[in-house]
Amino acid sequence: MARRRRLRIAGVSHHVIQRGNNRMEIFRSDDDREVFLAMLRDASTRRRLEIHSYALMNNHVHLVVTPRTTTALEKTMQSVGFRYARHVNQCYARTGTLYEGRYRAMVIDTERYLFTCMRYVELNPVRAGLVSRPEAYYWTSYMANAFGAPDALVTPHPLYSSLAPTPAARQRCWRAVCAAALPAEELDRVRAAVHRGDALGAVVLPDIDKEVSEI
Fold first, then answer.
1. pLDDT at residue 40 tops 90
2. What is the pTM of this model?
3. Beta 49-56 vs 60-67: how paired, if at all?
4. CB under 8 Å to 13, separation ≥6 — which residues?
5. Among 81, 90, 142, 203, which has the minimal tally of Cβ within 10 Å of its Cβ?
6. What is the chain's percent helix, strand, coil content, to nearest 5?
7. Helix (H) or strand (E) holding 181
């Protein structure tokens, strides 16, 4: 069967996921995570891929990104995938495939859905039961978006920047948005869309306007 053609749209945000082969761990230590982030910073800068949110889990990676060229996403993921797999194989004296095939990428085709995707990514460690609060997990973009912690990997999306006029107010807005878990039906839609590689924009954040307006 022929591979399904990827949607590659410059200037349009995407939700990306890369899993370990057979759901194996792709990060065995914090040093591995640091290496991966350094490689991702290097490749995304060179290829003009803006990263707005991320989460490094034990056996998979989530990203919310905006490519500035039609090849930015593909070339960034190819570069990081090859270099990081080589790092793991050398460090742990292993051979074979590290990843579960190609990365999956879902086009975020409405503005409101961007916040759902970012929220989905940054709350992933909480849903997985690794922590009880998103700020307790170091390997995501939550601290940058919610508290202004320095993170050279994160480029604020224009919609995030439009939440409020000052950084402190935007961070308060984002903490409010992430305070509640995503409803089960939204989680199911996100997971199904990522699995198929479909564009998804029908999900609506039910109370985001109210949450932001009350900050």
1. yes
2. 0.86
3. antiparallel
4. 52, 64, 65, 66, 107, 108, 114, 117, 157
5. 90
6. 45, 15, 40
7. none
Which SS3 state, helix, strand or coil, does residue 151 take? coil
Pick the CATH number of 14-202 from 3.30.450.50, 3.40.1190.10, 3.40.50.2300, 3.30.70.1290: 3.30.70.1290
What CA dihedral angle connects 10, 200, 210 and 131, to 10 degrees?
-90
Helix (H) / strand (E) containing 16? strand 14-19
Angle, in degrees to the nearest 10, between helices 72-91 and 30-47: 150
- Given a contact cutoff of 8 angstroms between Cβ atoms, the answer to whether 95 and 59 are in contact is no
Would you place residue 214 in the very low, low, confident or very high pLDDT band (cuts 50, 70, 90)?
A: very low
Domain boundaries, the chain: 14-202
